From TrEMBL:
Family note: Belongs to the mTERF family.
An MF annotation (GO) of this entry: nucleic acid binding
Gene Ontology BP term (one): DNA-templated transcription termination
Family annotation (InterPro entries): MTERF, MTERF_sf
Oxidoreductase among keywords: no
Organism: Castanea mollissima (Chinese chestnut)
Record's protein name: Uncharacterized protein
Signal peptide positions on this chain: none
């Protein structure tokens, strides 16, 4: 708990801050006294550091002879697993929670969340992440949102997982925004289980304006992707999540690197996540493959997942190790070494680093040194 500041020093601090931030206004002594008490309370009872307490006191005024609600709120939060860090962070985000009515406001909402699996630290983390939840009506919003999610996610465990991943699901107008989009996708032939998975893992994708969803679906159908295909949903997510200007820039980048528009759409149709890579990553990967590994563009277009690998953290360390192994004639002639870049980390490390580290001094250090240096710089 923070140590009480001498009242005179605190009052002086408040006065100086007031003069600095509100030089054009006049403040009465009573206002300063009230602010200084609020700052003291926020520091000593709520755990806020001085700077945060000073800032928060501009949004909240507490009176020494009227602390029943703040004290009841703090006691209630602590009884439900909120630690000092949770409480301080919550009050910084939503100071007026200290003036809430526990019995009428906080208790029913917290009890409902607790009954549905959010207990202890899980509950505290949820509320601190999105304090707006406590401003929503229990009957008018929180319960309907839970029931809505349960309809499509089948059980409370999935609802909990979705809300943990995207706490805003309890504060958005799901029936007004999400329901029409779900109805549209169902009409277009997207299976309900695919929609449910997207709500669980990528809900923002189908919280967009419906015209964006319509454009994406029509584009994918023209490409020949069936709504029942898993690839359809991957491609749908990429298209909907990307601005048209971003897509256009990526098209221009790839064209400048030797791809045709037909190549780009063909790759997108077979491996849509490759087009989710940033423009910088595309340039970096293509430069490494073409100029360092001397790989032809056609090979990359045939195997576009190469675009998804990190150059400095994965490709370059492996390439340098393979280059040493090749110079020592320990790799089979005619082997397509590009495919060794696709192996998982443990397999590559075991078969091409550990296996030869005794016979080739410095190989382990070469690989680890490059990896560590690149990770540090990235």
């Amino acid at each position: 708990m923070a140590v009480n500041l001498p009242f005179r020093n605190l009052l002086s601090l408040m006065h100086n801050r007031f003069l600095t931030t509100s030089a054009a206004k006049n403040s009465s002594t009573s206002q300063l006294l009230s602010s200084s008490f609020t700052v003291n309370y926020l520091m000593n009872s709520c755990g806020l550091p001085l700077e945060s307490a000073l800032s928060t006191s501009q949004k909240l005024k507490l009176e020494e002879n009227n602390l029943q609600r703040p004290q009841a709120v703090l006691a209630f939060l602590k009884s439900h697993g909120f630690d000092n860090t949770h409480i301080a962070e919550l009050i910084k985000k939503r100071p007026k929670i200290l003036q809430s009515k526990v019995e009428d406001n906080l208790k029913p909402k917290i009890e409902f969340l607790t009954q549905n699996g959010f207990v202890g630290k899980l509950l505290a983390d949820l509320i601190v992440l999105n304090p707006v939840i406590l401003r929503r009506g229990l009957s008018s919003h929180i319960k309907p949102s839970f029931h809505f999610l349960n309809t499509y996610l089948d059980n409370n465990e999935n609802v909990m997982a979705a809300v943990k991943r995207s706490s805003w699901l309890l504060t958005y107008d799901l029936t007004g925004i999400l329901q029409p989009n779900i109805d549209f996708l169902i009409r277009e032939g997207v299976p309900l289980h695919s929609i449910s998975k997207m709500i669980l893992t990528q809900p923002r994708t189908i919280m967009r304006k419906v015209n964006r969803l319509e454009d994406a679906v029509q584009t994918l159908k023209k490409l020949g992707l069936e709504p029942t295909s898993p690839l359809f949903m991957h491609a749908f997510r990429v298209l909907v999540s990307m601005k048209e200007s971003t897509w256009s820039r990526k098209m221009e980048v790839l064209k400048s690197l030797g791809w045709s528009e037909e190549d780009i759409w063909s790759v997108f149709k077979s491996n849509p996540l490759c087009l989710a890579c940033s423009e910088e990553k595309m340039r970096s990967a293509m430069d490494f493959y073409v100029n360092t590994m001397e790989m032809d563009v056609e090979t990359i277009i045939r195997y576009p997942r190469f675009l998804m690998y990190a150059v400095d953290k994965r490709l370059r360390p492996r390439y340098n190790v393979l280059k040493v192994l090749k110079s020592k004639n320990v790799l089979k002639e005619g082997k397509n070494y590009a495919w060794l870049l696709t192996q998982n980390e443990n397999t590559f490390y075991k078969n091409y680093v550990v296996k030869h580290s005794d016979s080739i001094p410095g190989l382990m250090e070469l690989y680890r040194g490059i990896t560590m240096a690149e990770n540090k710089d990235s």
